[in-house]
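=== RUN LOG ===
request id: a7f3
mode: sequence -> structure
chains: 1
length: 409
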Amino acid sequence: MKLVADPLADPRATTDPFGPRGSNQSGMRAHNERLVLSLVRQHAALAKSDIARMTGLSAQTVSVIMRALEQDGLLLRGEPVRGRIGQPSVPMSLDAGGAYFVGLKIGRRSADLALVDFLGRVRGARRRVYRYPAPDAVMAFVAEALPALTAELPPDQRDRIGGMGVAMPFQLWAWVKDIGAPQSEMDAWRDRDIQAELAALAGMPVHVQNDATAACGAELVFGTGERPKDFLYFYFGYFIGGGLVLNGQLYTGRGGNAAGVGPMPVPGPDGRMHRLFAAASLSVLAAQMEAAGLSSDPLWEHPDRWNIPEPILSAWLDSAAEGLASAALSAAALLEIEAVLIDGWMPEAIRAEVVRRTAAAFDRLDLSGITPPAIRAGTVGAEARALGAAAIPLSQRYLIDQNAAVREA
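=== RESULT ===
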C-alpha cells in the first residue's frame, strides 16, 4: 500500500532517507509511538523538534504522540532549554518506572530471574545454582522467586509489568554428555512446553529466545557507548555463544539460532581443526581447574569474583583468544562486519584481557582482502542474558521491529 504524504509535515525537514520513518496515517499511531520511544531510547533525551526532523512527522503529530506517551507514564518531561529563537526546547526522556519486565536466564549451571525497569536497570534479582538444568527445578525456582521480586515494587506499579522473556540454550537434551546430566531429566525438555507453563504461572505473556542471542539483544537495547550498525557478538557462558546484528537489527535466522558460533571450526594448538566450543567456553576453564584439584563452583556463583591460578587462567585466555580471532576472521570475510564485541559471565578485568589477547591474535592472522573489524568489550556484562531476556517483551511492545524471531504464549 502506498503511503500518502502527511499534509502537516514540514517540507523543510531534513531526514535520513535510509533512517526510521514515521507515518501520519491514522492506522499507524502504534508504529509511530514505538518509533518515538526507540529514538528517545537511542539518544537518551529528545525534544519534539528533534523527533520531527528525524522522522519527517509533523510537529503537531509528534506533539500528540509525545503527550500521549507522557500521560501513559512512559516519557518524562525535562527542564526547558532556552537561548534559541522561539519557544524553549523541552527534552523528553524515558521514565524508568513507566514499565517493568521480567527476564529469566536458564543456564547450564545456574538460573537467574531479574526484574528490569524501562531503562534496563535491574530492580531486583534472584539466582539458583545447580549441577544441571531440570525443568522441574527451573519451574520451582520461578514459582518461589517471582512473587518475592514483584513484591519489591510498590503496589501501584505492579500492573506495569509488561511480560517475561526467557533466555535459554535450545535443545538442552543434546548436551547431556557435556554437562554431566541424566539423559532422562534432559529429555524432559523435549516434551515440556516451558513457555506455556511459565505464562500460566506468571500470569503474563512469555517470550523465549536463544540465550546468547538474547545477550546480544541486551547489548543492542541497553548497551552504552558507540553502537555499530553491524557487529558479531560473543558471549562467554558455560559454552561460548553468539549473536549477530545487521543494519542495526538483531538477526536471529530461520530457526532463531543464527550466529550460534560454538560449532565454528577453528585451528587448535596442534594445528588440527576443532570447534570453538573446545577453545573458548567456560566449561573448558572449569575442567582445567578441576584437573588441577580446584573447585570450579565459584565460576558459576560469582561472575565478578574469580580466584584462579595465573598459569591456568593465562593458558585458557590464550586458547580462547586464538579461537575467537579465527572465528572473527571468518565472520569478517563473509559479512564485512564493523565490530566484534566480547562479553560474558566473567569479571570485567578478565573480559578486558580476553579482548586484548583476541585483538593481538587477530592482528597476527593473514588479513589480506579483509577490512578488520574493531574488537572491543561489550557494555552490558555478566547479566547480559537475563537483561536480554527482559529486553524481548520490551522490544515486542515498545520498540520498532527488531526482526527477532520469538514465540509468544
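=== NOTES ===
The chain has three domains: 1-84, 97-211+386-401, 226-378.
The longest helix spans residues 310-335.
=== END ===
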